[in-house]
Amino acid sequence: MGITMVLSLLSGVALFLYGMALMGDSLKKVAGNKLELILYKLTNSPIKGLLLGTVVTAIIQSSSATTVMVVGFVNSGMMKVAQAIGIIMGANIGTSITGWILCLSYIDGSSGIAQLLSTATISAIVAIIGIIFRTFVKKKPYSDIGDIMLGFAILMFGMQTMSGAVSPLKENPHFVSLLTMFKNPFMGILVGIAFTAVLQSASASVGILQALSITGSITFAAALPITMGIGVGAACPVLLSSIGTNKNGKRTALIYLLNDLFGMIFWSIVFYSVNAAVHFTFMDMVMSPVNIALLNSVFRIATILILAPFISKIEKLVFFLIKDTDEDNEEQADFDLLEERFLDYPPLAISQSQMAVNGMAKNARKNLMRAFELLTDFSDSKFNKIQEKENMIDKYEDKLGTYLMQLSMHDMTPEQAKQTSKFLHTISDFERLGDHAVNISRVAQELHEKSRTFSESATYELNVLEKALVEIVDLTVNSFVDEDLETAAKVEPLRELIGILCNDLKLRHIKRLRNGQCDLNTGFAFNDLLTNYERIAAHCSNVAVAILELDSSNFDIHEYTKSVRKLKDETYLTAFEEYEKKYDINGYQPEAEADKKFSAKAKDSEKNKDNEKSSGKKKDKDKKKDKKK
């Protein structure tokens, strides 16, 4: 196999992969968000999910793309793991359609109608129409339709290039002997897995197998194990897409792998056991591109028919393999509290809601603490954990908001209505605390990736401020969970101090920037942190005010906040003074030393200049005296 043949084969593979990607991406653009909406809405039964997964994958030509979308839905909480299983099974069937489309590239003819139906003619017509749409029709979706046609033409040309490159190999005895090695099922499966894992596309691997089949050297005995291995290898891009997702996202990706793995194991045992007993006569049958497309489809459909009755068992298995922690179980228990049957009994529904909001508050606090730790000890696992828990906090707000709105439509006493209103107000503030945790984590990530650090002064100031933030968050969550009015009253004076500190720190940082102690890039990060810190304190204040206001007859957070800030009683002022002493940022000021050094250098410089001037004047006087003499 010469270098020219290798290059020709690789160029064919490249064109094939690019054409397939262009066609699939353009199909998704034409469909817009409809594919995602269809996947999300029409999955209330396994059969519907299976059919849907088959159709969508046949359209976008990629089981991996379909599954990656499903992983995203499950990760966001929009879809359950059980709903995803049917779609993934359907995606395994839908991806086999590509093999049948590729069979068109082997249509050939020398004259008449056969010539009109040849691959070269079809590809040329499609390419011409595609380039006209792409170049001259700028209006959507026609330009995207042009891309679909161009992708199809490139895909076909890539297949022809691959076929042309490997065609001479049918006369090569070494190549024929290499392929006979794949008749060993174990070796064939390994080759199929490895090849597809590298290409990250089952369709591409099947296409290359079809191209090799025109040499006449691929038998059924060699094609079957490779086909079984291709399905397992195609799980690689899906597994990669699950990195950074929550546990349900990882479970969904694992389902894709398990489907093909179980199919490979089951049919390997059944087929080769029966073959050992009866010796199938078709094992040495030479495969054509159509035969390979048929084998791929039959294998995938047979696998799904065997696995479909065990969807519930597969769900239990992935939950067993990826276990929930105690923290995960607590979160799920919070969601289970919001039982719709309790809505007809407001006291019970309010009690359940209180426990769920308590869980939300505690999770928001934990995520903020993780974000603060990330600033001094960054790791990707901690960063991903914060993003994962933020999705969970969003889910809390969604479920609690829906539940409380439904509850507010029922007949309640004024006290119950007030309690429900308090929850509706506070869940949005707890959700915003989670958002600020994510913002802080992104600042930490940027500092880590760009190897930037704050000056000693800035680090000290942020540490003091973070301690104040930890206290205000603790006060807020504890007062809410324990319904402690005395603790809630301590929040507002601390919020005021944090606001003053943030403004003071901004001025100090501007001074450091002017003195050259900090650079502009870290200055942006410093200001981002201060902005988030100030808003965290504001949201804590909102929650505390809601707790305090519940004790009065008129629920108006804004009016109450104004009155608290305007009429500062002795308790408020005492608390403020205590916080002011506790979080004094003047205790450590390296910039003051730097200013002294700077001033000392400036004074020395001025003295030197004066000395130089005086010595210069003395020399001039001496010269004048010499001239007079």
Give your account of this protein's structure.
This protein has 629 residues and is mostly helical. It has four domains: 3-321, no CATH class; 325-451, Methane Monooxygenase Hydroxylase, Chain G, domain 1 (Up-down Bundle), CATH 1.20.58; 452-589, Methane Monooxygenase Hydroxylase, Chain G, domain 1, CATH 1.20.58; 596-629. 81% of the residues lie in helices and 0% in strands. The protein has 28 helices and no strands. The protein has helices at 3-31, 34-41, 46-60, 63-76, 81-94, 97-102, 112-116, 119-136, 142-166, 173-181, 185-199, 202-213, 220-233, 235-241, 247-278, 289-307, 311-321, 326-336, 346-376, 380-408, 414-449, 456-482, 485-488, 491-515, 520-549, 557-566, 570-582, 590-628. Helix 3 packs across helix 5 and helix 19 runs antiparallel to helix 20 (380-408). The longest helix is centred in the last third of the chain and has 39 residues, at 590-628. The model is unreliable at 110-114, 553-557 and 591-603 (pLDDT under 50). It is found in: Cell membrane. Residues 379-406 form a coiled coil. This is Na/Pi cotransporter family protein.
Please state roughly what percent of the residues sit in beta strands, choosing from under 5%, 5-15%, 15-25%, 25-35%, 35-45% or over 45%.
under 5%
What is the oligomer described by this structure? Answer: single chain
Poorly predicted spans: 110-114, 553-557, 591-603
| Morphology | elongated
- List SSEs in N-to-C order: HHHHHHHHHHHHHHHHHHHHHHHHHHHH
How much helical structure, as a percent, in the residues?
Answer: over 70%
The gyration radius over C-alpha positions equals 35 Å
- Straight-line distance between termini: 103 Å
The total count of strands amounts to: 0
User: Could you report the average pLDDT, rounded to the nearest whole number?
Assistant: 77
The major β-sheet equals: none
Count of spatially separate domains = 4
Number of helices: 28
Subcellular location: Cell membrane
Biased composition (Basic and acidic residues): 595-619
Membrane topology: Multi-pass membrane protein
GO molecular function: sodium:phosphate symporter activity
